Amino acid sequence: MTSEEKVNAPHRLSESPFVRRLLNVVALAFIALFLVLPLISVFAEGLQLGLGFYFQSLRDPLTLSAIKLTSIAAGISVPLNCVFGVCAAWAIAKFDFRGKSILLTLMDLPFSISPVIAGLIYVLVFGAQGWFGPWLIAHHIRIIFAVPGIVLATIFVTLPFVARELIPLMQAQGRGEEEAARVLGASGWQTFWRVTLPNIKWGLLYGVILCNARAMGEFGAVSVVSGKIRGLTNTLPLHVEALYDDYNFTGAFAVASLLTFLALVTLVLKTLAEFRNRELRGTAFTPVPLGKMGKIA
Amino acid sequence: MSGKQRAKKLRVLPGFRLTLGYTLLYLSLIVIIPLAATFVKSSELSWAEFSQTVFSPQALAAYRLSFGASFFAALVNLVFGLIVAWVLVRYNFFGKKIVDALVDLPFALPTAVAGITLATLYAPNGWIGELLLPLGIKVSYTQLGVFVALTFIGLPFVVRTVQPVLADLDPEIEEAAASLGANRWQTFYRVILPMLSPAALTGFALAFARALGEYGSVVFISSNIPMKTQIVPLLIMNEVDSFQYAKATALAVVMLVIAFLLLFAINLLQWWSNRHNATEFA
Questions:
Q1: Which residues have a Cβ under 8 Å from the Cβ of B154 and sit 6 or more positions away?
Q2: What is the DSSP letter of B181?
Q3: Which of A3, A109, A175 sits opposite B31 (nearest CB)?
Q4: Could you tell me which chain A residue has the CA closest to the CA of B25?
Q5: What residues in A contact B106, CB-CB < 8 Å?
Q6: Does A291 or B15 have the greater pLDDT score?
Q7: What is the DSSP-derived secondary structure letter of residue B135?
Q8: Given CB atoms, is B173 within the 8 Å cutoff of chain A?
Q9: Which of A249, B26, B47, B65 maximizes the CB count within 10 A of its CB?
Q10: Taking CB atoms and an 8 Å cutoff, what residues of chain B touch A213?
Q11: The Cα angle at residue A22 between residues A16 and A23, in degrees rounded to 5
Q12: How close is the nearest chain B Cα to the Cα of A228, in Å?
């Protein structure tokens, strides 16, 4: 129904103008109170002592080392989870096998587990009192309270993002196009690079964006395994906490504004990717000759 | 399809063993083995030690607050999420696309940033706290603060589960109800709401589950007072910080079991929701 038809429709088919206005006001007030106000306040608090202090907080060596560590953690965990996501989606969407729904549930586990517990399970495996603790100590390998632990915890909490984006997309696209490519003589890799990847690239980008946002912003899980050694094992969110706990509120909000900016960029990219994805999904269903080829296979 | 044909179909596309094998290996190393370690570790505790930790007064107070605050936060999100989804799908207004994109902010914003922001906003000298103080309402550093933080992080769930279902609703159903004499409220309450309820309940359950495990956005606004403003993840963190790993593990196992049960319930809800929609629009 177009908006014009709606306006002309009798009362029974849409709400009275008063109810419409009321619902609009309630919805927007809720959004303003819970989303817009916090967003504005991050930047307002960060800039409270002026631009000079703001940039000084961002240029601080501890901030720079936190930025570096956060980039390392995201730089390792996002590509690994990306490869995992593509593999999992290929296996799940293109083939039939038993226990698929159990596998899907297992993949969702990191989303339903508290981040604190996610950090704790790695302490129990790699910590000094953990399963591999004595062996790691004997070989002078540090995982907990060091960078590898932070990377592991980040991988854990961001594991499902790419896979969850790709699986429904690839399931909807079916396997007809790939089967056709194979029948026409393409190798497995050629099929993947030339047929599958172009079809899923926007969904893949979307998953990577979400995965990266969470990887850079993770707090609870990283908090448990990091040990919070300033300049060494503090990621950006942990650095925000450290500044806040030191009553350097303006500094904390200045660094927080950096993460908020990242969140806003994520939302913009996500909206764009979603838009392209929808466009692509709309046209991907009509390749008639390929569909026929799929049936031959 | 017979077994042989099926096997042949499998062979048309390559890489099944490779990708499934890698998926299982990666998942085992990152998720399943460490999780299993937690359960094995907790079994090293005697029952007396275990129950002393998980039924301690401090733990019981934490469960009460965690479940209570999560439930009410999810409830508020259920009501307002339905309204926001309705407005976004049915009405046009200036800046609708921006509002739509902004709904996902709690997913994109790091929880620590949300935590310090909410704590500052609702502090007695903060933008909102200042206004509430004359009314005698304190939010930051109270249980109400925990509820506010959990409402923030659960906000997108109901909106995002209801939105697509609402957009796909067949207008003819509403037209039929109206032509049979139902007024707008009756149509909404008797016809539209029942069709939205599986999706809305799924969103509610997702928001509730997320709130139960939340840490970053709560830690700053709650101020972590035992028996008063301490939720379970904060209690676990305290035990970890004081190297009481056995106690932390015992509490973690309780929360894991609850999380698994919730995950199961959510899967059932989603299945119900899908079936509901499938038969509705067949």
A1: B73, B74, B77, B106, B206, B207, B208, B210, B211
A2: T
A3: A109
A4: A84
A5: 35
A6: B15
A7: G
A8: no
A9: B65
A10: 107-108
A11: 90
A12: 11
CB A46 within 8 A of CB A256: yes
Predicted complex ipTM = 0.88
Please provide the size of chain B in residues.
282
Q: At what angle do helices A37-46 and B111-121 cross, to 10 degrees?
A: 90
pLDDT band for A289, please (50, 70, 90 cuts). very low
Interface size, chain A vs chain B, as Cβ–Cβ contacts under 8 Å = 291
Average pLDDT over residues B45-67: 93
As a whole number of angstroms, the distance between CA B185 and CA B158 comes to 21
The pLDDT value recorded for residue A11 is: 58
Interface contact B10, partner A, CB < 8 A: yes
List the single residue in A39, A131, A155 with the smallest CB-CB distance to B30.
A155
Torsion of CA A5, A8, A14, A18, to 10 degrees: 130
**What is the arithmetic mean of pLDDT over A84-97?**
93
A234, A69 Cβ separation under 8 angstroms: yes
Q: Does B94 touch chain A (CB under 8 A)?
A: no
pLDDT at A10: 53
Which residue in B211, B209, B29 sits closest to A122, CA to CA?
B29
pLDDT of amino acid B22? 96
pLDDT at A12: 67
CA distance B249 to B35: 11
Chain A CB contacts of B223 below 8 Å:
none
Per-residue pLDDT tens for A141-150? Answer: 999 999 999 9
Q: How high is the pLDDT of residue B269?
A: 83
